[in-house]
Structure formats: C-alpha cells, structure tokens
Design a protein that fits this description.
The structure holds two protein chains of two kinds. By secondary structure, chain A is mainly α. Chain A has a single domain, classed as Ferritin, core subunit, four-helix bundle (Ferritin), CATH 1.20.1260.10. In chain A, helix 1 runs antiparallel to helix 2. The relative contact order of chain A is 0.14. By secondary structure, chain B is α/β, with parallel strands linked by helices. In chain B, the strands form two sheets. Chain B has a four-stranded mixed β-sheet. Chain B has a three-stranded mixed β-sheet with strand order 1-2-3. In chain B, a hairpin with a 5-residue loop joins strand 6 and strand 7. Chain B is elongated, with a radius of gyration of 17 Å. Classes of the chains: A mainly alpha, B alpha/beta. The interface between A and B is medium-sized, with 30 and 27 residues.
C-alpha cells in the first residue's frame, strides 16, 4: 500500500474536526465522568491530527498549523460524519461507536504502509485508540437495546460508511452488523463545517503569525 | 566536551510536567542520546500523542543540554517504540509513593480489556488493598484513569497501561 499526503489529510481532518465536536461536551456532559472522558478523547484526537498533519506537511512543504487552520473550509477532506454539530447523547454515542469501529479498520491498513514513518505513527495511534474503543463499546453495550440509540445508529450509518474508502466498507458493515448502503461521501461539506471553521481559525485569521 | 553520561544525568533531573514526582528518564520517553561535535541529539517519544506537556518536555530537554554548554538537537519520534512497560522500576516506585497506581504490565500481544481493568489486580497506592474499582477510564491527562479503593475509601489515579 502506498500512502499519500491526501490520505493523511483525510484522517487528520477527521480527527481534528471530531476532536472539536467531542470537546463540545466539555462542561455539559450528562455526568462528570463523561465530561472528563469526552474532553480527554477530544484532546487525544487533536494530538493525532497534529502528528498526521506534521507528516503530511513534510511532504507538502508546509507546517501542521498551516494545514490545520489556513485552508479554506472547502479544502478540508473530513468526512460528513465528524462535521455534525453536537447532537443528543444517543447520536453522540452512535457516532463515537461507528467512528471508532471504522477508525480501527483504517488504522489496521495504515499500520501496513510501506512508509515506515506512517506505519509507526499508525501503530502508536492504534495503541492509544484502544481506550477510545473501550469507552465506545461500553456505551454501545449499555444502549444497544434502546430504540433512540438504534435509530441514531441507523441514521448515521451512511455517514459512517463514508469515513472509509469503498474497499474497507464491507468489513465495517460486518463488524457493526448492518448492510452496506450508499455512503455519504467525503468532499461535500455542510454549513456546520464552515461555522466550526470560523470559530477554530479566528485567532489565526485575526492575528496572522501570532504565538503564545 | 560533554559526555553522554552527563546528558543522561541532566535529563534524569527533569520532572514530568504533569506528574512531577517522576523524571523523563524514569518515564522511559528518552530513546537515545548521542553526542557529536559539541551537539547533543536526543530522540524522544511522547507518551500519548495528545499529551499537553509535549512542548514543555522538549524545551526543558533543550534547556538542560544548553546548561551543559552543548547545542541541543531534540527530535520527537512519533513511532510505536514507547509503552508503559518502558517506565523504570524506580519510576514505578515513585509513582506509587505519591499516590498513583503504576500501570499494570502489558499482556503480550493483546489489547487491554475492560474485564482486566475491572479485575482486582490494581493495588491501592495508599493502603495496598486490591479491593479497588475502576471509576473512569479517563482522567485529568490522556495517560491517567481514575480508580476508587473500597477498603480505605480513597480515590486515586492510575497510569493507563498502553
């Protein structure tokens, strides 16, 4: 398998945007434990985004911050699943469960990359992600018989398929126990991404080159 | 001319910014030190990629090399070479003495499971009881979980096994 900066950017954008979305629970999650959990997961996803941007930046001759914050919203490669603004708890857990399941499949492939740096980074990410997966599965087990949760999983399922390239989708369908349907593909962005972009780039746009 | 041993000694004085009882050397995050023509190359692996202390650690290492009169070249290596098994025995003891349960050894080749985390394999760092329960997989930094001791009724933090 060959890895290009395009693929690194897709994954980095997913992790950055999802990190922002997860952090929307900071301070208002249903319990203190979940407040801490989602905040910690958010922080770690953004750490993964940074490491991936750094690798991509070397190939593209730029730096991680420029990739994260200086592109136009239309240039982001994030999957529509991660762009949705904070939803109710059932949808939040459904997205978490679907994303972590998809991410595990994607990382398994990335660990086999011919590029030793990419493979090494993927292995490190995968090691850390096991805690995100434990958390997601714990909640999925708790909610799987709740109609609201099942509806949320079904609603987000086409979005979840869009996280992965077509050849990895059958594995996701098998692990989640749903049939493959038409995916909501990358490359289409909602207004929600633009709003998030306005917020996350405001300092960078207001004071170019600022450091602190 | 500074020697590698002097550099290791200096690095052993740098505390982890988040858990200051343990040094960067105890934590096992320094993979290699090489001295060449007055320049000191340090290869360093973060614990968790989301670690907020990464820059602080990198700057502290550079500063301590400068204090030895050499030019630092600190390289952050983003590969899979660090695990909690790299924490030294002395580091584990320091963690325990300050109220952190050290990480359990990694079970070879298998991912940590909730069953393992809920098992009574984790001693309370305060009273030594194994009657402890997982309160939250996540804690104040990416590398920590929160547990509760049912024997002495003390909450405590545990270094995650990864």
């Amino acid at each position: 398998m060959t890895t290009t900066s395009d693929l690194l950017l897709e994954i980095a954008d997913d992790e950055l945007i999802l990190g922002w979305r997860d952090s929307e629970w900071t301070g208002i999650a249903p319990s203190l434990e979940e407040d801490v959990a989602f905040s910690s997961i958010a922080q770690n996803e953004i750490g993964h985004a940074r490491a991936l941007y750094e690798l991509a930046a070397r190939e593209l001759g730029t730096d991680a911050d420029a990739l994260a914050f200086d592109r136009d919203p239309g240039e982001y490669r994030s999957a529509p699943l991660v762009e949705r603004r904070r939803m109710d708890w059932a949808h939040t857990i459904a997205r978490h469960f679907l994303y972590e399941t998809a991410d595990e499949i994607r990382l398994a492939t990335l660990k086999e990359s011919d590029n030793a740096e990419v493979a090494g980074l993927a292995a490190k990410m995968d090691r850390e992600e096991q805690y995100h997966r434990l958390h997601a599965r714990m909640w999925e087990e708790r909610l799987r018989d709740e109609p609201r949760f099942r509806d949320a999983v079904h609603e987000l399922w086409p979005f979840a398929l869009g996280v992965l390239p077509p050849e990895q989708r059958a594995t996701l369908a098998q692990r989640v126990g749903l049939d493959e349907v038409d995916a909501v593909e990358r490359g289409q962005h909602s207004d929600e991404l633009r709003e998030l972009w306005e917020e996350m780039t405001i300092v960078r746009r207001s004071v170019p080159g600022a450091t602190w | 001319m500074v020697s590698e041993a002097q550099v290791w000694e200096a690095l052993a004085e740098i505390p982890d910014p988040e858990i200051p009882v343990i040094s960067l050397v105890d934590l096992g995050v320094i993979r290699a030190v090489a001295v060449e023509n007055g320049s000191v190359r340090i290869e360093f692996t973060p614990t968790f990629l989301g670690c907020p202390a990464l820059e602080v650690m990198r700057d502290a290492m550079a500063e301590s090399v400068r204090a030895l009169g050499a030019e630092p070249d600190v390289r952050v290596v983003l590969d899979d070479s660090w695990s909690t098994d790299k924490i030294t025995p002395a580091g584990r003891e320091k963690l325990r003495a300050s109220g952190f349960a050290p990480p359990a050894p990694r079970s070879a080749g298998t991912a940590t499971t909730l069953v393992e985390l809920n098992s009574m394999a984790f001693r309370c760092p305060y009273c030594g009881s194994k009657e402890t329960a997982l309160e939250n997989l996540f804690g104040p930094t990416p590398c920590r979980s929160v547990r509760y001791c049912n024997a002495c009724r003390q909450p405590f933090e545990q270094f995650k096994t990864i």
